[in-house]
Structure formats: C-alpha cells, structure tokens
C-alpha cells in the first residue's frame, strides 16, 4: 500500500515569476500535473498535494484530478516542514509514503516502480532516487557506502568544496516507511545555510536508507529556473519526436518542429519544417503538414495537406488541401476532398465534400453543401455590429468573385451569383442572381469634355 505526497507549496523564487513554479507549463501541461501523471499508474491508495504559495490557484489548476487531497502548508519553511503537515492526516497509517518534489516533471513511472520495488524487497526505512549528474550544481549531494546505503545528504549550499565534487545527487523522490518517518519528523532542526527544515535530514535519521541510481539522469532534472525549464522542454521534445519517428512518422528538420505530448499521429504522416502541433490534435495516415503550420486541438483526416496555415479547434477531412496561408478556427469543419486556399479564413463554418474556397475569402458562421465553389474574394458579412448571423449555401452553388453575402442568408442548391454582387435576400434553387448596378458606357466622353 502506498500513499503519495507531492510537494507543491514553494514559490519557486528562482523562476522570478508571479506564477507558482509548479504551475509553469512544459509541453502543454503544468510541472505538477506531470508529476501527478507519473504516479497515476501506481494506483496510490491516497494522493496528497502540499500547497502553500498561491494555494488557491494551484488547487484550481488541479481540481480535475480525481482523488487528490490538498494539504495546506501556510508558511514555506522547507521540504521537511512541508512533510510535517501530513502528520495529522496520516495518523495510524502503517504503509509506505512516496514523496515527490512538484518540480521534477520528466520522471517515468517505470523508475518509480523500480524505487518501490527496491524499497519493499529490502524492507528499507527509506529508499531515495539518486543520479550521477555531469553537472550536479544546485542539488543535494548523496554520500553512500559501497552497498548503496545512504550515509549523508548535504545540500549544495551546505557543501564544502570537497563535498561539491560528489556527482551523486538527490532527485527529490523518496519512499519512506511512514511509521519511521513520522517518529523523526517532529525533531527536524534548521541548522543549515537556508535556515529551513530539510526533508533530507529526516532521511538520515531513519535506517536503513538505500539509494537507487536512475539510469537516465535526464528524468530527474528539477526545474528551478527558466533555463532549466527550457532544457527540460528540449528533452521532452526529443523523447516525443523519437517516439513518433519510431512509429513511422517522417519529421523533416526535427529541430524546427514542436509536438505536444497530447498529439496523436499515424504512420506515414510527414511533418515538414517549422510546424507546431499542439493540444489534442490528431493527424491521420498519409497527411502532410507544413512547412510552417500551426495546428492546435484539431483533427486532420487521411491524405490531407496543410501548408503554411493555422488551424485551431477544427476538423479537416480526408484528402482536403489547405493553404498556403489559410486560417481555420472556431470549429471549422471541412469535408473530404476540398480545397481551402490562399488567404482564406473559415470561422465556425462547415463545408461539404468536394467544395472549394480557393482564394481571398472569409466565411463565418456558414454552412455550405457539397461541390460548392466559393469564388475569389467572397465574404460573408456575418456581423451586424451587435450579433453574428448564419449563412447557408446549398449544394453545387457558385459565388462569383468579390461577392458579399449579407447574413442571415439562405442560398439554395445550384445557385449562381454574379461577380461583384452584394446579396441581401434569400435565393431559391437553380437561380442566377445579379446584384450590382449595370455598367454604363458613355461613348466619346473624353472628347466631349474637351
Ligand atoms: C530539493 C532537495 C535537494 C534535491 C532537489 C532535487 C531538500 C532540502 N533539498 O532541493 O536535496 O537535490 O530538491 O530537485 O529537500 N516545497 C514545499 N514547501 C517548502 C519548500 C519547498 O512544498 O517549504 C516544494 C517546492 O514547491 C518544490 C519542492 O518542494 O516543488 C522542492 O523545493 P525546492 O526549493 O525546489 O528544493 P531544492 O532546493 O531544489
Ligand atoms: Ca528544486
């Protein structure tokens, strides 16, 4: 049985931010959410987040996590003090407590499982996750004997020059036999450089304590400042891209591409340079994205192409070509085999299959049928200054260049709109509509003037 505690009460002074450190985001999710994600598969019997600095905003950001309890640490007097706050909540508990710093966002669940396994097999009082870092600066140094039994943990700020040479560091992830920890928690002192209650002091007051070195040290990097946040982002991107390339996705110039962890791709998708895939985006097989596209929370069907375009909260069905320079947003939904071309904006607009909006158009709050052709420069005037109004366009209807469709408006099936028309009244099926003044030619006008 394991209870999880996540330390999320600190301000994170080194971030130089008003936002609590643990709420800074990494690839679309906050640091603390990532930590919570990493413990989820362990199915802890209880999980508690220790909150303090801007507790309300941290709680609000985590309210969607089921079965997460919040424990308030009113003053942030150190990591040991944070864990002291659990004493009244865990009275009588005899299982293990897994403690994680809220700023270790790249941890893998596998690593936590290993830690728990070593802890339980050896019946340790505590087992801590450690790593050998090329640059251990800033971390607590862990001193062990030959059998990986921990003898001392010294914070960077408390280290002598000689102790700083030790490259084995404390990852900030611990498993404790709770009854042992509970006994020594009340006796922690603050005799250290930061005048804080250190959880690391409790570690050396129980016994035996074993350390487990993580295989890939990148997993345990803690985020204290913006540079470390940026480095963690690079590592995360590397992981995500390697995973997708292994799954059959082509990334052209991967360093110029970013992909959120929440994105789903199918084999034989090609992502071209300078493209960014965010949120809950899904891209189906055979599609080609980019160069230069941003796709957020959108669905792209099979064999579609999107070039130099921005698509948010929208759906593009199979075989449709988008761009260059198109902008789809507000739940645009484009059917299969359509073409959405240069300088076209679609907002909250549905297009049936085999329809084209190829050049210089804005369609807002529009529902168009199949095989529709929207001529260059067609604009829906969907906003009267107060309210938005809908436009309906029937199957096979064609608008001439530079048409203005003043909403609310219904155009039937097989309607033809003459170029340059401003349409203000509904049109029924099979009509040709011309809504512009006739051309007037005054012959010899120039000569008369003279
Ligand atoms: C801590 C460890 C250090 C380890 C490093 C790993 C201690 C004393 N030191 O140092 O050995 O190498 O993590 O990244 O534990 N927090 C609270 N309440 C507080 C203080 C902090 O909840 O009163 C939370 C913070 O929000 C953060 C976590 O605890 O999520 C760690 O605090 P931080 O100040 O970043 O500790 P480090 O100095 O990095
Ligand atoms: Ca830290």
Can you identify the CATH class of the largest domain? Alpha Beta
Q: What is the CATH architecture term of the largest domain?
A: Alpha-Beta Complex
In total, how many beta strands? 41
Sketch the major β-sheet. Answer: 11 strands, parallel
Radius of gyration: 31 Å
Q: Note poorly predicted spans.
A: none
Estimate the mean pLDDT confidence.
97
Ligand inventory: uridine-diphosphate-N-acetylglucosamine, calcium ion
End-to-end Cα distance, whole Å, is 102 Å
Helix content: 10-25%
CATH level 3 topology of the largest domain: Spore Coat Polysaccharide Biosynthesis Protein SpsA, Chain A
Assigned CATH superfamily of the largest domain: Spore Coat Polysaccharide Biosynthesis Protein SpsA, Chain A
Give the spatial strand order of the biggest sheet: 12-15-18-21-24-27-30-33-36-39-41
Which structural class fits the helix and strand makeup? alpha/beta
How much strand content do the residues show? 25-35%
Supply the number of helical segments: 8
Whole-number count of domains? 2
């Amino acid at each position: 049985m394991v209870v999880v505690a996540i330390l999320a009460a600190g301000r994170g002074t080194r971030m130089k931010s008003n936002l609590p450190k643990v709420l800074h985001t990494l690839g679309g999710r906050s640091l603390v959410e990532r930590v919570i994600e990493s413990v989820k598969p362990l199915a802890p019997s209880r999980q508690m987040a220790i909150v303090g600095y801007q507790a309300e905003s941290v709680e609000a950001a985590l309210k969607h996590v089921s079965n997460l309890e919040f424990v308030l640490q009113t003053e942030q007097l150190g990591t040991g003090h944070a864990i002291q706050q659990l004493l009244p909540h865990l009275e009588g508990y005899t299982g293990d407590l897994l403690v994680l710093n809220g700023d270790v966002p790249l941890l893998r669940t596998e690593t936590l499982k290993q830690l728990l396994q070593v802890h339980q097999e050896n019946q340790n009082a505590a087992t801590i996750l450690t790593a050998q870092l090329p640059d251990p600066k800033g971390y607590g140094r862990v001193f062990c004997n030959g059998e990986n039994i921990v003898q001392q943990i010294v914070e960077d700020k408390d280290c002598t020059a000689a102790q700083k040479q030790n490259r084995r560091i404390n990852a900030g992830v611990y498993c404790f036999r709770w009854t042992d920890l509970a006994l020594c928690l009340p006796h922690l002192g603050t005799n250290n450089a930061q005048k804080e209650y250190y959880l690391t002091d409790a570690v050396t007051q129980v016994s035996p304590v074993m350390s487990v070195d993580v295989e890939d040290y990148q997993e345990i990097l803690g985020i204290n400042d913006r540079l470390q946040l940026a480095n963690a982002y690079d590592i995360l991107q590397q992981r995500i891209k390697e995973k997708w390339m292994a799954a059959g996705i082509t990334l052209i110039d991967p360093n110029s591409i970013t992909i959120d962890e929440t994105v789903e791709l199918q084999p034989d998708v090609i992502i071209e340079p300078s493209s960014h895939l965010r949120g809950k985006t899904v891209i189906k097989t055979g599609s080609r994205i980019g160069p230069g596209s941003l796709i957020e929370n959108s669905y792209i069907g099979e064999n579609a192409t999107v070039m130099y375009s921005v698509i948010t909260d929208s759906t593009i069905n199979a075989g449709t070509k988008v761009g260059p320079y198109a902008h789809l947003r507000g739940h645009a939904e484009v059917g299969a085999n359509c073409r959405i071309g240069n300088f076209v904006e679609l907002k909250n607009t549905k297009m049936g299959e085999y329809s084209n909006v190829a050049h210089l158009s804005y369609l807002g709050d529009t529902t168009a049928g199949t095989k529709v052709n929207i001529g260059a420069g067609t604009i829906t005037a969907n906003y009267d200054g107060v309210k938005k109004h809908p436009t309906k366009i029937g199957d096979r209807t064609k608008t001439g260049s530079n048409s203005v469709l003043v909403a609310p408006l219904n155009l039937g099936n097989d309607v033809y709109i003459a170029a340059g028309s401003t349409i203000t009244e509904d049109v029924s099926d099979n009509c040709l509509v011309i809504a512009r003044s006739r051309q007037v030619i005054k012959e010899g006008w120039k000569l008369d003037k003279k």
